[in-house]
Amino acid sequence: MLTSIIGFPRVGNLRELKFATEKYFKHQISQERLQTVAKEIREKQWRLLKENGIDLIPSNDFSFYDTLLDSAALFNIIPSRYKELNLSDLDTYFAMSRGYQGDHGDVRALAMKKWFNTNYHYMVPEIEDDTEIKLTGTKLFDEFHEALHLGILTKPVITGPFTLLKLIRYTGEKQLPDFVEPMIHAYEDLISKAQGTEISWIQFDEPYLVHDLSSDDIALFKKIYTLLLAKKGNLKVLVQTYFGDVRDIYHELTSLDFDGIGLDFIEGKETKSLIKKEGFPKNKLLFVGIVNGKNIWKNHYGDSLATITWLKNSEISTVINTSCSLLHVPYTLKNETKLDADYTKHFAFAEEKLEELNELKILSDLDSYETHPAFIKNLELFSSKRKNSYDPEVSKRVSEITDQDFTRLPDFFEREKIQKDVFKLPLLSTTTIGSFPQTLDVKTNRSAFRKGEISESEYVDFNRKKIAECVKLQEEIGLDVLVHGEYERNDMVEYFGQQLNGYLFTEKAWVQSYGTRCVKPPIIWGDVYRKSPITVEWSVYAQSLTKKPMKGMLTGPVTILNWSFPREDISTQEMMYQIGLAIREEVLELEAAGVRIIQIDEAALREKLPLRRADWHSDYLNFAIKAFRLCHAKVKPETQIHTHMCYSEFEDIIPEIDAMDADVITFEASRSKLTILDSLMAHHFETEVGPGVYDIHSPRIPSVEEIEAALRLMLDKIPADHLWVNPDCGLKTRGETETVASLKNMVQAAKNIRNECKGDI
Length: 761
Description:
Elements: E1 2-3, H1 16-25, H2 31-51, E2 57-59, H3 67-74, H4 80-83, H5 89-98, E3 100-102, E4 105-107, E5 112-114, E6 121-123, E7 126-127, H6 139-149, E8 154-159, H7 161-167, E9 169-170, H8 176-195, E10 201-205, H9 215-229, E11 236-240, H10 250-255, E12 260-264, H11 271-278, E13 285-291, H12 301-313, E14 318-322, H13 341-344, H14 350-364, H15 373-383, H16 392-399, H17 412-423, H18 440-450, H19 456-477, H20 494-498, E15 500-504, E16 511-514, E17 517-519, E18 523-530, H21 536-544, E19 551-555, H22 557-562, H23 572-592, E20 597-601, H24 616-632, E21 640-645, H25 654-658, E22 664-667, H26 676-682, E23 688-691, H27 704-715, H28 736-757
Parallel strand pairs: 1-14, 2-8, 7-9, 8-10, 10-11, 11-12, 12-13, 13-14, 19-20, 20-21, 21-22, 22-23
Antiparallel strand pairs: 3-4, 5-6, 15-18, 16-17
Helix pairs in contact: 1-2, 8-9, 16-23, 18-19, 23-24, 27-28
């Protein structure tokens, strides 16, 4: 029995890559120093995997920003606007990731979207009509030889050609079919070059196979790999899938000349039944994705070994594998010094999952594993009751929810009339999504309070001062609806989790969200309820400083759940409703305190949507939308409810988003070229909407003219009295100078267009 993993966290044990890269962006270190830090991280990772007994160790899973973008760059899929900057290869890569504004030119970044059903964001490669797809990069081979020099033989990992073709954005007249042949030839060159090295296994990641596939998709996949596998010679090729099952293409997949096939046994609902029904070829290795790469709970050895034993009894040659890359979990539990062992004994982060893989390998090779100490210890863990995890009162409240708890009265159109009369906001009202830059003094204040170095009153006084400065700044800029800046918050989910019962928190359990952005998801340990008011004091204080409307800022139940590590002992619906009831209490208390606009962010609504359309309503959307409505259904008609969503593909769930029954919804739109507008119009979207007019994940400052152009495009699809003007997302990660300049340009552009269209209303 062998072990393998699909990928590993790449920012380092203590986010070394994040800090080095950000220093490089600020010109504080050289490119050579940045490359040295990256090399040190890779070496440490490979040695760790080898020490933990992993047999098939990945390479090329490292990235400075995103592995899909790495794959595109490897094959010369680089839009001309970035090449024309005449920067170094690495700086061209960062220009695609972050945008560029400097002596060499001014370009926006590529679009960014959620990676399947995770909180990771990938960069969407763009291909132009004159792009010549060819193998020009050497990263895959460089990193393989780097590991080999350490005495570690690895299996290079790369995005497969089918998934790459499906996720690329085609910007010209040519579309996917026009690029199939050159893509095949480029991958043939890759295989040919690999044959001239010591590479024995190469892993092609094809996660797109877990989507609903058309007959054309299946034919395309067969065509690509029939040709590629004919060229592999002695090279062993693994096709790796994750995040679901391959029910649409299982027969064709297993019929092709792959040496190994990786299947997900965690999220793949039909994986076992497909094998039972159709069998599995005796001449291939099945990479069994049985250690969960997306959650932090320990593996249940009894369940895993039952599956492995069944496969062995079916005479299927297996490799014990993770269900997906370990990129989606924190690096190691060793960094956690404050959580009690009664809690941590239930968890396995990336490094601990390596230990689990090794123990499963040892146990699976035994004739009888039931008496082995590792199995007995695991069995006892799952047999014991977790402390402080169940609250009968919370369960009772959820069981008493009725349809009336999801229904807001009066209807949207009547509320809209009431709210326009109450607020008297101008046409094309301007606002922000919520947070303002978290400068060093803000972080220092929060850290000092957490460490007990300052008193609570000192902490509060500092934040009040920052709020007052933020309110004054927004009034000077001319924004119409203000926010308090969120200086008291470390993270939009962790902050709320800290105020709710049922959550656990880590010290250094960071997970990469995109590029250098890392988050520290809280852990849902037990039943969730609100202990006391969370945001009311801050919002009320902020409102007292201005006559303009001040938004109360909350995170919604779907996002709080989706950006946490969830329990596995109760249903997703139960957890969402528990959190929804807690947020409802906060909403009603804000309203009672005089806060008239309340934003309940659902940035992650799309995130856990099943990848197969048939499962959308039965498995997720019905109760996700209800969980959001549960938060606001009891407010008065004159209270305006906002929500925000970002960096996902929402076009195919527009009716469901409208059914959330918010009064205003803001979307990320600038990186995706405002493509959502056509869907809003096609579905007769009723809710007032604010498609983001500029990208906040890039340091570049949009001009007034650029924003005006975006607003004119929006007004072709959205009535002016239904359109709001706002950035794509919160401003927490941006610098103060660029934030102020961008917002001033945004407000000026809104005023200019407002004057143009007043006569049309």
